[in-house]
Amino acid sequence: MIRKSIGRIAGAALAVWMGALAACGAASAETIVKSDMKIKLNGSPLSYDQAYLIDNSLFVPYRAFAETIGAEVGWDGDTETVTVKKDDSTIKLKIGSLSATVNGKTTAMAAPAQLIDSSTFVPVRFLSENFGIQVGYDDATRTVSLTSGGEAKHAYTIEISEFKFGPAELTVEAGSTVTFKNLDNVKHNAVATDGSFQTPLLGENETASITLLAPGEYDYYCEPHKSFMKGKIIVK
Ligand SMILES: [Cu+2]
């Protein structure tokens, strides 16, 4: 049933992989290529014993991938269906089927789950995106980057009033968005001492937001009032 044509194709068109969700001719023979792409999750490299490019979609073994993203898995041999469950989301993939079930809804996929040498391989992009994990690809380093942390994202506001940042020190989770709001009728901004962020000069009631991804301590100041207007954001 499952065609396997493992071959070597140099320089598979990875740009196509990025957009491969769009369409897939069900009748066309799949092209299965061993993949040497690297995968990172939130910046940490992951390693899989095997990975394949199938019709330019990256596939990895389902158990290993589920562990990576902190999901539970199940396998029903009678229906050849993999169930992947994470938080409140459940995705069911049937071997060879272009329809997946995402929280009970039938959803089309670019390339189906596959049995290769008796192991079940699942598409990284499809699962990641349906679990709210962002997927990026850097062609130069052939690295797929997965960014999770949906529920850890928070939004904070620092009010600038009477030439002070309030609160002067703020602790946030990595990936949080911090909005500066100026309440003074004098222009202020916020500039990180290490150059990692800089808002425009804000007039009265104007706001600017920054997103802090890397943990660390960020000292910042207001450029026009550098000598006395200072603050700190601690990213955990
Ligand atoms: Cu200022």
Automatic annotation (TrEMBL):
SUPFAM superfamilies: Copper amine oxidase, domain N, Cupredoxins. Residues 155-236 form the Blue (type 1) copper domain. InterPro entries: Amicyanin, BlueCu_1, BlueCu_1_BS, Copper_blue_Plastocyanin, Cu_amine_oxidase-like_N, Cupredoxin, ET_Amicyanin, Mao_N_sf. It comes from the Bacteria. Keywords: Copper, Electron transport, Metal-binding, Signal, Transport. CDD domains: Amicyanin. Residues 41-145 form the Copper amine oxidase-like N-terminal domain. Residues 1-22 form the signal peptide. PANTHER family: BLL1555 PROTEIN. This is Plastocyanin. It comes from Gordoniibacillus kamchatkensis.
